[in-house]
Amino acid sequence: MNTVKISLKDSIIGAVINAVINYFVASHAFADKLHVPMSLDMISTTEVSVWGQAVSLSFGLGAILSFITAKLFSSHTMKQSPHLKPQISSVKLKSLLSISLNNTMFLFGWFVALAILWTRYFGVVLVPVVAASAIVAIMAFVVTMIVEQRTKTNLVQRWESTVNTNN
User: Are residues 17 and 72 in contact, defined by beta-carbon separation less than 8 angstroms?
Assistant: First the structure.
């Protein structure tokens, strides 16, 4: 099973694409403002903030990218190592849901915690729209890298456990 290699550089293109997409999504969300708060000193609000966008994207990207990464990585691995097809095919939807939920909750928890810490120590800091959008883009890049690495690692572990179970 040592034939499957997971490399950070394999995730960079997807992370850059997500960063660019989320830059423009954030720019649109912040379009009617001159400055955007990094966070707000309240739990419930209709006002947008950088950390609010980041928490939302961590949840959405965590869920969606897990499935996309699992499908693309599995297909790529089957092409590179056809002898692994039985192990790869043994990972079912239930396992993919588990991976997705795990990634989503991991990222959501971290981003909420970081947003709370930011608010606690820095308070409400206003940044220009371009900077706010760039920060959201960087966060999307990081989320994508984390999701891809965690998903791939988890899939390889499941494939290896299938091999060990069959021996």
Answer: no
Rounded Cα gap, residues 96 and 152, in angstroms: 11
pTM of the predicted protein model:
0.88
Paired residues of 127 in beta bridges: 36
pLDDT digits 0-9 by tens, 5-24: 888 898 999 999 999 999 99
Determine phi and psi for 35, rounding to 5 degrees: -135, 150
Q: Where are the alpha helices (DSSP H) in the chain?
A: 12-29, 50-80, 85-89, 93-122, 129-166
Per-position b or e across 89-103, b if 16+ CB within 10 A of its CB: eebeeeebeebbeeb
Rounded to whole angstroms, the Cα distance separating 27 from 49 reads 12
Is residue 77 packed enough to be buried (19+ CB in 10 Å), middle (13-18) or exposed (0-12)? buried
Q: Is 111 left (phi over 0), alpha (psi -120 to 50) or beta?
A: alpha
- Owner of token pair 């239930």: 94
CB 61 within 8 A of CB 147: yes
